[in-house]
Structures are given as C-alpha cells and as structure tokens.
Amino acid sequence: MSPKVVSLVTQAAFAALALTFIAVAALALLTDDVRAYPIWLAGPVGLLVAAALFAVGWVAPRRSSAIVWDEATQDAWLRAQATGYWVGILAFVAFGNMVAAGWVDLGTAFLVSAMLTAAAPFVRFLAGAWLVRP
Hints:
By secondary structure, the chain is mainly alpha-helical. Helices cover about 85% and strands about 0% of the residues.
C-alpha cells in the first residue's frame, strides 16, 4: 500500500468525521430538539473510522505510514488541535450567551458546541491538506 493510498484513506476518514459532526450540529440547530433525530450517530461513525484507520495502519508498510505521518503532518495536526480548542471556547461562549438570551435551548446549545468543537480539528487539518499544495 503506497503512502498516497494511506494519505487518501486518512483524509477520507477525517472528512467523514467532520461531515458527521457538522451534520449533527446542523440538525440540532434546525430542529431545536435533540430528541428528534439519532444523536448517537456520531458514535458508530467514529468507531468505523477508527477501525478503518487501524486496518490501514496494520496493512500498510511501516515506511508508508512514516512517510504520511512526517514532521509536517504532525505539526499540521497540532495546529488543527489548537484551532479546535479555540473554536470550542468560542462556541461554548457564543452558545452560552444564546442560552442566556433565550434563543437556544441548553441541550441544543451544548450539543452544537460539542459537535463544532469535535469537527474543528478535522476541518482545519483537511483545509491545510487540500488547500496548501506544494
């Protein structure tokens, strides 16, 4: 398995997670009732992604994985995690204010803030991978 395939599988897995988290957040905002749809959807998607990444890591030669997960990728992932941290702080503050103003239910605000916090590192990492090409 080539490094290109390992990289594409990783990016597809991260995109699936990001889209799932964003979809759950959007559904929560649109319905304004967290019981109106399967909130547990993010769990199985996360487990499937983890299994796929584990399988690719197990099957791929160690050299391919090392090429994909080099210092630049590690730095990009650390920056993506930092972005997720700040998005989380901003989301919880923003939605906390919306709850205080009576615009959003507390359960909805918490769910949307959590899903946006979870999606942010994956979105940042993929944006860096897809928009910044050498």
